[in-house]
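Feature request, filed as a ticket because there's no other form

It would be nice if the structure record came with a short human-readable summary line next to the tokens. Right now we just get the raw output. Example of a typical job, pasted below so the devs can see what we mean:
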Amino acid sequence: MKKSFSYNNMLKKNNIFLIGPMGAGKSTIGRQLANQLNMEFFDSDQEIETRTGANISWVFDVEGEERFRDREEKIIDELTKKQGIILATGGGSVKSHITRNNLSDRGFVVYLETTIEKQLIRTQHDKRRPLLRSSSASGNTRDLLQVLAKERNPLYEEIADIRISTDEQNVRVVVNKIIILRKKSSL
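Raw output as currently delivered:
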């Protein structure tokens, strides 16, 4: 987790950025958090879909992961420049050093953690996640999630202001924890 805060960084903490693996609840929690705090909500994946006119899976399939990540990086750069927003990011967005810096520098970063078991349950019927579509066809979803966790968890931890497990908590409890911990961190 981030270790130091500057006065300038504290001024930028009026944004809340949700990071974590697929199935952690970033979009669901983000919408409710935005509603409760009366802030504008954005989902980076939805922004990509809106701007391309295609779903994430199609963009991923046609353009490839590298081009998708380029789009994602640019959209997150643009969105993180806004003030007073909640942003749910894609699980792989932290692969970009630029994105990690933008998230860390421009807002309060919440790492929503979940276990692979919960990810499997929460994403088992989701056909929109491009990385899962190919792995579920071959029966290697658990293996893929383990590889992604090994690669990405250290990146989530690197920029997180706080970490919250979403495994055994309902959305309202997680939202309230974020609000309380954000207030405590700004004291």
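Something like this underneath would help us a lot:
The mean pLDDT is 87.
The longest helix spans residues 56-80.
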